[in-house]
Design a protein that fits this description.
- The protein has 386 residues and is α+β, with helices and mostly antiparallel strands.
- It has 2 domains: 204 residues, Aminopeptidase; 140 residues, Gcn5-related N-acetyltransferase (GNAT) (Aminopeptidase).
- Strand 3 and strand 4 form a beta hairpin.
- Helix 2 packs antiparallel against helix 9 and helix 7 crosses helix 10.
- It is globular and about 65 Å long.
- The protein starts with a strand and ends in a 14-residue tail after the last helix.
Length: 386
C-alpha cells in the first residue's frame, strides 16, 4: 500500500456525490449515493440500528480517487443475510471479541452487486490494494474481521487471491430470454407449470382487486404510508426488526425517481398490498412486500408475475426477487450462486472458518445443481439469450 492513502467517513455526505457516482456507475441503484444517503438521512442506518457508517475511500499514489466501499461498523450480525453468528459464538466462547466488525455491504439488502466500487481510471491492482486496506483498518482499529457480502464473483475471486475466505450462497433470479410478452415466457414452460401459473394469475385477478404499477413521483405520500404499514406487517409476522424507518421510503423515491417501482393492489380505493422494486440498468430488484387480509396468490402476482411483466415491457434482463424461496423455481426463477469474502484477524478463527467454508461449499454447489433439475422450463422450447 506504499504511497496509497485511505480515508474513513462517518457519513456518505462526506464524499461528494459526483465522485461517488464515478466509482459506483449507473447500473445498480443500491450502491448509489442517493440510496445510501436515504438510509442515513432517514435514520435507518446509524447508532440506533447498529449499522454505523464508515465508508472507505482509496486514493492512488497520484492522489486520485481510485475506489470507494460502502462500509459499516457492526455490533451485531442482523440484517446481513450472510450468517456468521456461529463464528461469533465460537470466537467469544474461546475468549475472543467478535464485535465490532467491519461490514462492506448494503444494509438490510441481500442484492448482489459490486462492493469495491472502482473509478473507471483506477489502476488494475486497486481491488488488491483495497483488500490490504480493509485488513489494515481492522488491525489499526481493533476490529475482529471484515466481510464483503453479496459482492460480484470477480470481486470474491480477487479477494480470495489476497487471502480472504470466499463463501457461496443461493438466490433465485428470473432471466429474460428475449421475450416480447408474458405469454412468450409461459410458452417455454412445461404444460403443467404453464397451467398452474395461469390459474394463480387468474385467481389473483378475480379477487376484485385493482392493480397499479407506480414509479417515482407518481407514488403519493398516502401510498408510502400504506406501504410502510404493509412492511411492518411482514416484519411482525416474521419476528424481525423494522430497520427501515417510515421516512426512508418517500425519501428514497425522491432521491431515485423513476427507478423506484411500486406494485400496488387496492380493494376499492383502499390499498391492501404492495411490492417494492428498484430498477437498475439491466435488472429489476424485488425488495419488500406486505399486505393486509388474505387474498389468493396475491404475493405471487405482485412480487413475481408483475415483476416479470415489467421486466419484459422495459427490456430488462433479469428479475432478482430477494433471498430464500425454493417455491420461486416453479414460477420461472432459477437458482443462482451469490458470493461473499471474509477476512478474520485471529489466525485460529480464520483457520476454523476456512475449514467450515471448505466443507460448506460442496454442499451449496450440490444444492444448486439439484435445484436446477427442478426447472419448469422445457429446454427444447427455450429461445437463445438475447
Amino acid at each position: 500500500m506504499a504511497d496509497w492513502s485511505v480515508t474513513l467517513h462517518n457519513s456518505i455526505h462526506d464524499i461528494p456525490a459526483a465522485e461517488w457516482a464515478q466509482c459506483a456507475g449507473p447500473d445498480n441503484p443500491f450502491v448509489s449515493h442517493a440510496f445510501l444517503s436515504a438510509l442515513e438521512d432517514s435514520g435507518s442506518t446509524g447508532q440506533q440500528s447498529g449499522w454505523v457508517p464508515r465508508h472507505v475511500c482509496l486514493h492512488s499514489p497520484d492522489g486520485q480517487l481510485a475506489a470507494v466501499c460502502p462500509a459499516y461498523l457492526k455490533g451485531h450480525s442482523w440484517g446481513e443475510y450472510v450468517f456468521d453468528q456461529g463464528w461469533a459464538r465460537a470466537f467469544e466462547a474461546a475468549g475472543g471479541r467478535y464485535y465490532p466488525k467491519l461490514q462492506i455491504a448494503i444494509p438490510f439488502t441481500p442484492v448482489p452487486g459490486p462492493r469495491v466500487l472502482l473509478h473507471p481510471d483506477a489502476p488494475p491492482q486497486t481491488t488488491a490494494v483495497m483488500a490490504d486496506a480493509l485488513r489494515q483498518i481492522c488491525a489499526d482499529t481493533g476490529l475482529s474481521s471484515a466481510h464483503v457480502t453479496f459482492c460480484t464473483e470477480a470481486e470474491s475471486t480477487a479477494l480470495h487471491q489476497q487471502g480472504w475466505l470466499p463463501r457461496l450462497g443461493l438466490q433465485y433470479h428470473w432471466h429474460n430470454r428475449g421475450y416480447a410478452t408474458f405469454d412468450d415466457f409461459l410458452a417455454t414452460l412445461s404444460a403443467r407449470k404453464r397451467k398452474s401459473i395461469k390459474r394463480e394469475r387468474r385467481d389473483a385477478n378475480a379477487a376484485g382487486l385493482t392493480f397499479e404499477t407506480l414509479q417515482g413521483a407518481s407514488i403519493t405520500q398516502a401510498d408510502w404510508q400504506a406501504f410502510y404499514q404493509f412492511y411492518r406487517n411482514t416484519i411482525d409476522r416474521k419476528w424481525g426488526s423494522a430497520y427501515l424507518s417510515a421516512e426512508f421510503f418517500p425519501l428514497m423515491a425522491q432521491q431515485l425517481g423513476e427507478r423506484v417501482v411500486l406494485m400496488l393492489a387496492r380493494n376499492g380505493s383502499t390499498p391492501v398490498a404492495a411490492a417494492l422494486n428498484l430498477m437498475g440498468t439491466h435488472t429489476l430488484y424485488g425488495r419488500n412486500w406486505g399486505c393486509e387480509g388474505n387474498w389468493p396468490f396475491l404475493h405471487f402476482e405482485l412480487c413475481y408475475y408483475r415483476a416479470i411483466d415489467f421486466a419484459i415491457a422495459h427490456g430488462l434482463q433479469r428479475v432478482e426477487a430477494g433471498a430464500q424461496g425454493e417455491h420461486k423455481i416453479q414460477r420461472g426463477y432459477e437458482p443462482t450462486l451469490t458470493h461473499s469474502a471474509h477476512w478474520l484477524q485471529s489466525p485460529g478463527l480464520r483457520n476454523a472458518v476456512d475449514r467450515f467454508l471448505q466443507a460448506e461449499r460442496p454442499a451449496i454447489l450440490a444444492e444448486a445443481q439439484a435445484l436446477s433439475t427442478l426447472t419448469p422450463y422445457r429446454q427444447d422450447l427455450l429461445p437463445q439469450n438475447p
